[in-house]
Amino acid sequence: MEALDKPRKRRTLLKWLFGGSLAAFFAPAGYAVAKYLSFTAPVNGSATAKLSAADLSPAMPAKLLQINGEPIIVVREPDNAIRAFTATCTHLGCIVSYREVLPGTESKPAAGFYCKCHKGEYDLNGVNIPGTRPPRPLTELTVAQSADDLTISLTPKAKG
Amino acid sequence: MMIETTQSPSHDIVTEPARTSGLSFIKSRYFRNLAESAHLDQPLEALYHKTVPIHKHSFWYYFGGLTLFFFGIQLITGILLLIYYAPTAEGAHKSVEMIITQVPFGWLIRSLHSWSANALVLSMFIHMFSMFLMKSYRTPREIMWLTGVLLLLLMLGFGFTGYLLPWDQTAYFATKIGTEVPKAIPVFGDMTAGLLRGSKEVSGTTLIRLFALHVGVLPLIALLVVLAHVTLTGLLGTTSPVGTPIKRRVYFLPDYVLGEGIVWLIGFGVLLTVAFLYPWQLGKAYDLAKPTEPPAGVHPEWYFMFLFQTLRYVPEMVAIIGFTLVLIFWTAVPWLDRRSKANKKSPLFTIIGIIAILYIATMTTLAYIAVGNEASAEATAAKPAAVAAPNTGGGK
After folding, report:
1. pLDDT reported for residue B23
2. H/E element, A16
3. Crossing angle of helices B142-164 and B204-212, rounded to 10°
């Protein structure tokens, strides 16, 4: 009985060896390909965006800029405060713009950020307006001002 | 004997060889149901019973499969390279540089792609000439030969179009020469060169054109022709050369495939070792805005060297017409070789095959000797100048 079982055991061993060598080949190959695919190309750009305060005129109160490929929006708000926000809509990633009168607020004009793609709206603090699609507020960024020169970095502005 | 060699193996099996190992999954209910629902049960059944004749020269058949294996490697590594490669005169060299210096394992994938391309062409040449010398093209395998010739042209096309893509100086000048030669084609010369270049000189437009051919047009055609070539091999099978007795038959599944698998493993082992130890190099970028003279010893890939060398002896037009005639002859061999068609030994075509091999071997050797001489001549010519420079500086 035992002797009859032997060839079958040998076959099982061979099957495991064969499968094992296939796995030993494909696992590292898969690892290499996964590493190769997960590379993210570095963006060559400065870590800050620079702008002159004079560029934000009443006629053109907002500007779209980019830091390391990430779009940001700098705006001179109605109270004359200069603020910067990430310009990527938190809904599906379109780029928002500044509107002195947000669509739908014509009867009681309110300024804010507007996303054309799905009519997303944010108020002047970058907070998403309930009833529109965006799920989260825009992130406010740090603006350093010396005389007329504005330097905006991707560091979120400390809440206070 | 004569009858056995003329018929395809699926018809002349009287008794099947004993199976040494089973393919249990093919017999499983799920697999059978799936195959039946796709009307694939009969082809699969035929494949299951397919046998391969073994004879004195069986070894050479492995090179067809090996070429197919390298083609698979080219597809996979090619698609991977496509992810980071930028086909513009400004970005091409930079992107290849990024692939080999920054992307993890990028150097290996690029090295595999370049080395495997050469291995593919070598394996294809061995396959073609062994099939020629065994007269494997004889009835009923004429169409197999025809698709094979087509694949030869397609693979050489891949080599030619792929050579420019890294946009280094050697690539630039080799393509400049390669796209200049077609100008000598009677009547259609300028048009052909213009179509290849897309501009008067080799430029960014040329790069995009050759790129489009390399990754779009050629793979699409090649895949179809490879499929036809392999399907025909499956349908018609292999046979033995006239006068060589078939010793025995083995099952295609799994015996022959496992044997082929060993050859693939060896091929892959050699390829991986070479790609690892000798990573494919990238030359200096060519800047279209600053024309320079070519680097020393500019020459095409080794498999174009016999053509390159022929151009040293005869005018371009003669070479083009000559090689076109040779190609037409080569394509028509199954119909021209009447003795093989009638299953008789055909020494004349054996001699033609040997002459072709000798011609390619001799011309390639001469070409490399010439390139080597030119490089050393340039090196000695450059030396005195280098020595003279500090002297003149000291004199002042």
Report:
1. 66
2. helix A2-37
3. 150
Q: Taking the alpha carbons of A27, A32, A35, A37 in that order, is the dihedral positive or negative?
A: negative
Given the structure tokens 């090196």, which residue do they identify?
B379
Q: What is the mean pLDDT of chain B?
A: 89
What confidence tier does B84 reach under pLDDT thresholds 50, 70, 90? very high
Q: Are A78 and A111 in contact (CB under 8 A)?
A: yes
Residues A26-80 have pLDDT tens digits of 999 999 999 999 998 877 677 888 899 888 888 889 999 999 889 999 999 888 8
A32 interfacial to chain B (CB closer than 8 Å): yes
Contact A35 B104 (CB under 8 A): yes
Core vs surface per residue A131-149: b (16+ CB within 10 A) or e: ebbbeebbbbbebeeeeee
Taking the C-alpha atoms of residue B82 and residue B80, their distance in angstroms, rounded to an integer, is 5
| Residues contacting B127, CB < 8 A, separation 6+ | B60, B63, B64, B66, B67
Which residue spans within A1-148 are E strands per DSSP? Answer: 48-52, 62-67, 70-76, 82-86, 97-99, 112-115, 120-122, 140-146
Q: Which CB contacts under 8 angstroms, 24+ apart, belong to B325-333?
A: B327/B149, B330/B149, B331/B146, B331/B149, B333/B132, B333/B137, B333/B145
Q: Token digits for B103?
A: 């992307």
Instruction: State the pLDDT confidence band at A2, using cuts at 50, 70 and 90.
Output: low
Q: Which of A34, A126, A88, A57 is nearest to B83 (CA)?
A: A34
What SS3 state is found at B236?
helix
B235 touches chain A (CB under 8 A): no
Rg from Cα positions in chain A: 28
CA-based nearest distance B300→chain A, Å: 30
pLDDT tens per residue, range B37-76: 988 888 888 888 899 999 999 999 999 999 999 999 999 9
What is the model's pTM? 0.85
**Does B102 sit within 8 Å of A36, measured CB to CB?**
no
pLDDT in tens, B193-240: 999 999 999 999 999 999 999 999 999 999 999 999 999 999 998 889
User: Which of B105, B262, B272 would you mutate first to test chain A, the one with the most A CBs within 10 A?
Assistant: B105
* Average pLDDT rounded to a whole number, residues B15-39: 76
Distance CA B51, CA A76 (A): 81
A69 C-beta neighbours (distance < 10 Å), count: 9
Q: What is the rounded (10 degree) CA torsion for B260, B266, B268, B272?
A: 180
Residue B345 confidence (pLDDT) above 50 = yes
Helix (H) or strand (E) holding A149, with range, is strand A149-156
Is B104 close to A41, i.e. CB distance below 8 A?
Answer: no
Facing residue for B106 by CB, picked from A36, A38, A42: A36
Is residue B323 predicted with pLDDT exceeding 60? yes
Contact B105 A41 (CB under 8 A): no
Q: For the segment B355-396, what is each residue's pLDDT rounded down to a tens digit?
A: 999 999 999 999 999 988 888 888 787 665 544 444 443 333
